[in-house]
Structure formats: structure tokens, C-alpha cells
Amino acid sequence: MKIRIDHIAKIEGHGGFVGEIIKGDVVQARFMVNEGARLLEGILRDRHYEETSQIAARICGVCPVVHTLTSIKALEAAMGVEVGSETIFLRQLLMLGQLINSHALHLFFFSLADFFGIKDDLKLIKKYPAYTKDALAIREFGNMLVEKIGGRTIHPLAAEIGGFKKWPSKQILLKIKKEAEKVLPGAIRLGKLFAKLKYPDLQTNFNWASVTALNEYAIYDGAILWAGPQNEKTLPAAEFMETIKEFQVPENPQTKRSHVEEKPYLVGAIARLNNNADQLNPQAKAILDKAEISLPSENPTHNILGQAVEIVHCLEEIAGLINRYKNTDPDLAKNSPWKPRAGRGYGAMEAPRGTLLYYYETKENGDIKNCNIITPTAQNIARLEEDLKIWLPKLAKNTPKKREALIKMLVRAYDPCLTCATH
Amino acid sequence: MTCCEGCRVAITDLGERFLALAGHVIVGDFPFIQEHAAKKIFDITFIEGTPILPEQIEEIKDIRKRSKILIPIGTCATLGGIQEIKNYRGDKAECLRYVYKNVDQIANPDIKPISAYVPVDYELTGCPINKEELLKFTKKLLVGDTPKIPQRPVCYECQLKENECLLQGGLPCLGPIILAGCGAPCPSVKYPCDGCRGPLQKVGQNFDNLKKILQGHGYNQREIEMILERFGTKDQINNKFKTQNANVKTTT
Hints:
The complex is a heterodimer. Chain A is of the alpha+beta class.
């Protein structure tokens, strides 16, 4: 039996699926990414350090914040730049906005309709006007945060090596805090909705990876915890990135896949919950407790629930973060002094879809000599294909239409970003 | 087409205003919110990205046939975008080999805007597009007006925001020669305009003047060119210069 889906809508980028089952054995399960290669690593070579992170941001219009910041972090590591606590604070805030606005888009507009068998969001919106309002308000809040601190929602500009080009005023920070408190109840309502959904029974057996830190639910910084049912290890980002084996497949050569220790693995919200759930803020934890899942979860569709929990966590975190920094005078915030130099550096951060990794080697003048970028989806595709292999025989009894809908649902649960995956 | 999809995110970010507009028209094919296309023939088609895969090149021709009005949106579709940097490097095969061990079957054409493949009716540029501009533009089209983007430099909008001039401060800002309409978000956070909306129709003397100022600040020819390469503006400016110089010759 051959299964072919030419186009899977409601994901970032263009992709489809090709599968084949012969006598109950899955001989092929390929997620086909239909994106052209933009050759980002190739075009970044020889570019000026000032523009590098802005060019890198263009990898993705949904998560440009994390691309800019991870790129800057890797450049800072390469050139030995230490940034101040105000800089870290603002970057952490930006990342919370990034997770909130990306998750809101995916949860409500991409994935939710799958649970009600609705094909067109305009119908979903008519049926659930109150949830629509909540989802839009959350997305708009995330956008506002990124715009106020980054200067623009899509492809923000204010962050730079050593600090920020422009620092936001105290009033802006207080406004962000107030607005975060205002949208939190809506996020909790949505969180409860996602906690009540019935997730498909797709228990598999996989490894996962995310950033982890001792003192917080790690997003901006930390080591990488790679874990699974049999084994786990914590590695510095640099070492983890070197451990990843990127490879190509002949059917879809422009989109690399990734293995660690010859195995596919999963990154994203569920990986973060598996590693760090005990560090969630209280209201986020309460929603997770309402859901009938146990952690660590090896059901990739729980990624959807994980994102809903994370929106609540991030909104709670904003108020706490701004409270901790409320005595900081932005007028006194300063960029760290630094000079371009030759070096090598790695950066890792939790993008909405999982761990994003950057590597740069700079020349004496700071220009880019070599680089590599491993995106969350480039790591997740091999895992997604493995899940599809496990799932296809279970789906065989369904009608072709239902089967197709379930395959799409699983793909969308991963929240793949194909523009990131190919870059 | 191939791009970062930030422009369709921008459309989604119109939020309730997008939904209100969607109530007045039939949304024919918007895969961000629709599982299947609702229509095959379109009155107005907005398209983002650059064709890279052979099937994308075929698709743009097909979309042209099915659209009464075709409007490329965003820098990738109108100028080439960041992926065009490889054209200027002159080593696209090496670029490909740097990224991939196995380069078989990976499409690597020169990057060209949509207008190089098919005739287009309007263009809305910017990386990303200005969603307010797109909304205003669309409303005008829907009531039968012919929308126009005013030919004003980014400096015009930057001054309205009372920003300090970055160019005078020694930064490599392209504001004087780049088409406004973005609302100058970059210079507003002290990031010099790097030309994502492409040059004004008539850059004329302004480009020479700008180059002189930049050279006065210590930027060499290569550094200026690299900024113009960032979004695919360099060939546009060179072409404009050629035609404008040719015009000058024929009229004098």
C-alpha cells in the first residue's frame, strides 16, 4: 500500500509525506520538504559580524528572535564577549515573547482544528469566538513585547553583539508586565482546553534533548540534557553540537536529518517538559497536573499540550523577571566593550520548536570564516519519520481519508518549521 | 515559494483586522489557516518568496495564469532577498558544496525576483512587508482604486519620527536612496537602513552623494557594496544607474 500526501497545510513551509507498507512492514516513511536550499551557511561566509545575525534571522519569519539571539550568542562566544546582566535580562524577555507568539500561532491556528475535524480555521474561529479572542490576544501580546524591546515583531533589530542598540525605558517594561498579567487568564483558559483534549495514543520509545539549567526553566542558556529511557547525559552546547551527526537522504537531499549516537531524537516543548517540568511556574504546573499525562512522556502529540503549558509559564515568568529587575535603571545599562578577533564559538537556545544551535569561526577582523546552523526541525524530522513508521501499521484499518487526517495531525503536533529545516 | 514566510506571518498578525477583511472576500488559498484551497482562480494573488525548486518555477507560471492581479510581496519576491547574496559571490556551486556533502539533485539556480519569471501587476516590498501598508493597499484594490506607493525615501519617515540621523552620525545608512513605506523601524532603534525595500525609482544624484558621504566616513567601495548585496538591492541600483545614465546621454 502506498500513501502519498502532496501538501500538508498549516505548518511553516511546504511539505508532504510519502509512505509505503508491504505485507504489514513499513518500507518507507519519508517527510518530503519542498523548500529550496537558500544556502545560509554558504552566504554567511565572509559577511561582516554586524550584519550576520540579521541575515541569519531571515531563516525564519516565525522564530526570528531566537535565530538573531543564538547567532549573536555564538559570535560573542567566538570573540570572547561577556555581556552584562541587563543584556541577559532583556534577551530572556525577548525569548519569552518569542515562545509566546510562536506557540499561540501553532496551537490555535495550526493544531487545534485537528482535534475537532475542522479543515478551515475561519470555521474554527466562528465556532469558538471566545478562545479565538484569547489566542489572538496572547499572540498580540507576544508580538508587542518583541516589538517594544526588539524594535520590530518580525526580524527584530535592537539586539547586537555586546548588548543592545537601543535600551527600552522603565515605562515600557512596566507596560509589558501589566499586559502580561492581563492576558494570563486567557492563557490559562486555553491551557485548560488543551489539558482536556484527547491526545492520540502514540506511545513510542525515544530520546529527547533540551537545554537545562540549575536555577530556572531553561530557555536562554544552559547545558544540553540528552535523555531517553535507557540513558542520559548532560553536555555543554559546544560538545553536544559536535556530537550531532547531520546526514542527507536521497529522496529529499536539501533537508538534512540529524542523529545522536546513531539515533533520532526529539526536541521541543515535550523534551523541555521531560527535562525541566519541576521548574515550571505554579499556574503552568497546575495546568500540567490537570492533564492526564505522566512525564517523561514519549508521545510526541503531547508537544501540543507542552506548548499550552509553556505559554502560561512564560507569562508568569515575565512578571517575575521584571519584578526582579525593577530597580534596574535602563539609562545606566551599558553594552560590554569588545573587539573583533579570530575565534570559535557555539550558541544554543530553546527555540519554540526545540534546541537551536549555532557555530561560528571568525577571522581576525570578526568576519565569518566558517559556520554551521542546526535547527530544531532539522533534528526532529528523523524522529518524526521514525514515529510515522511506528504509526502507519496502526493506521492501516482506517479509511484513507481518516488515515491522511491522522498523519497530518501527527506532523502538525511536531510543529515543524520547514524554512528552518532547509535554510 | 522559498523564503522565511515572515510576510504571511505579518498578514496573520493583522489579527482581528485580517479576520474582518476575510469576512468581505473569499480567502482562496492561504495554507496558514486552510487545509485545502477554496478556489482555483483568483482575483488578487499575493505571493511571497523566490522560486528555487524547478517545481516552484513551474508553479509561479501556473499561478500567473490563474490570477487576474498578481502581487509579489516581500523582499524575496520583489528583489531576491538574502538568498541572492550567493549571486553576487559568484561561487554558487562552491556555496552549495560548502553546505552539502552530496550536491546531486539540489536545485541551485541564480536567485531572481518573481518579475523575472512572469509579468506582475504591483509589488509590495520589505523584509518583512509592512502589514499596515498591505492592508491599506488591499482595501484600495478592493474598492477599485489603483494603489500607489509614494516615491519617498526612508529619510522622510525617519524624520517624521524625529530620529537622530544615523548617516550624519557616521553609520552606513541607505535611507536617502531607499523607498519608504516601512515606517523606518530600523533607524528608530539605531539600526541603519540596509535597503530591504529596494531603491527609489529615481535614485539619481542621491546615490553618488550617499557614496561620497559614506566614503568620507571611511567606508570603502567593497563595504558599501556588501550592504547593497544584503537584500538584493545592488543589481537594482546598478541597472537603474545604467538606464538613468543612458537617459542623460540621450537627452543631452
